[in-house]
Amino acid sequence: MSSFAENLQNIDRRYLYLTLLLIVVIGLLVPIPLPLAVGPQARGVYDAIEKADPRKLAIVSTLWSASTQGENRPQTRVIIEHLMRRKLKFALIAFGDPQSTILAYEVADELAPKYGYKYGRDWINFGFRADIAGTLKGMVRNIEETLKQDTKERKPLHQFPIMKGIRNFDDVGFIAEVSASANYVSWLGLVAGSTDAPFCYAPTSVMAPELYTYIDSGQIAGMLFGIKGAAEYERMLGIKGFTTRAITPVSLTLILLFVLIGLGNYGMFASRRQGGKA
Amino acid sequence: MNLQKFLISAFPAAKGSMIWIAPLLVIACSVVLFFVLQSLPGRARKALIASLTFLAGLFYALEFFWPVRKGTDENFLTFAVPTVGNVINVLAAFTLGLGVFSLVRIHTGKVVKQREGWPNSAVLLISIVVMAVAGIRFENTLFFRSLFRDVLNSFDAAMFATLAFFIISAAYRAFRIKSAEATLLMVAALVVMLGQIPIGQYLTHWIPENGSFASIFRLDSISNWLLLTVNAPATRAIGFGLGIGGLAIALRLWLSLERGAFFEAKADES
What we know:
- The complex is a heterodimer of chains A (278) and B (270).
- With 278 residues, chain A is of the alpha/beta class.
- Chain A has helices spanning 4-9, 13-29, 40-51, 69-85, 98-115, 132-141, 143-147, 184-191, 212-216, 226-237, 242-273; strands at 57-63, 89-95, 123-129, 172-179, 199-203, 222-223.
- In chain A, strand 1, helix 4 (69-85) and strand 2 form a beta-alpha-beta unit.
- Classes of the chains: A alpha/beta (278), B mainly alpha (270).
């Protein structure tokens, strides 16, 4: 008969799944009102938008699909909302995943009436491009010549008032990439050297640690660290959106993870002391 | 003669009926080219593809390294960068089409021969057709939005969400402190993760966020320090290694020195 210590190392995974499910559901239904400190990375994104030149275009690039929308959608939302609050003109562009262009468009389209944003005058959707490197290389020289037309109305870019005076990245005042992938390599390698516009990144939590080297070097002006970054941003904007509520189940899930790892290790040590299987 | 002016005069913008004739000519030429390529022996095909790969790489290398004209940021190739970018986009889009073609070919075969799991293949084929028709013909309708938002997005999100369950189970079983390194990793992971969540931050919330020496002892500050001062140099070192490796691979691909490529195998066959 296996001992209690051995059992602690081998809890049936169905119990683990059930506990996790309960914690997520309860966490969403009953948010714990705990304060969330705003980190310097999220502050960096906020400051970059605050300082952006309103005469220039802001670019929000996206590479995410429904699979990571739990983190990437609120990140896209807070960035666009802040751009709209500051009355900055912005353009959406998507790489990598065709879903991305529709999902990001939905976010902007939903927020536009609240801030009186008109398509073509205040914002535009450049749409999806299959190849990021060739597109960015072209945009560095001439945005209109590279992208030709928008995605919504399929009209040449020069017909939109927002594109008046916008030729290349010299006329761009802010760049953000919301991504579930490593697109920052292309942005930093091909664009960052050709513009003074600050580059900010909003990755999923699992990707965020690899970005710190570029934050340290100053190549990335700010970052939204997954859903936590979006929650920090909501705090700075003074809104209580999805992430403010969703951060509770995230916290509880991590606590569950710590507890389970602790139990597993306690079981291992206890089992060793008893001379059992570790 | 200026290369840009020469190209513009040699290939003027299509007008009138040429707008329709030019794409048809391109399609006809592509079909002919396809059969010519198919009929070439493996070695000749490899040489042709190696030459095209080299020329394509050479364009960007020359454009990057060639000195710019005085008073401008451009050299004699810069004007072509957006056009070449568009060509690459078209080629990349073709690879998406190729992927769909490959999927359809394999799963059609499965359905026709009723191999194991053929109903799944049938569902896949029907889904591809329905989604394509909805996206092309009924883009701004409830039909497409419902398929995209309610079906595809929900499936996609649900698939990814199941990862959380597997991660919890895997971390519980795999994360055992069996060495000093594992202990160090565990402590670092604990501090970093606690620093990212409100419950963790609450443990040291009584320490001021800014303006005090004690602020560095807040969990979120320690977490940030670990990510910036310990994690970043390690990531940078890995990045250097990856960069050098990437450069070597890029050179090998550019010069078609990479062994085991598809056309090399074809060349050996002939």
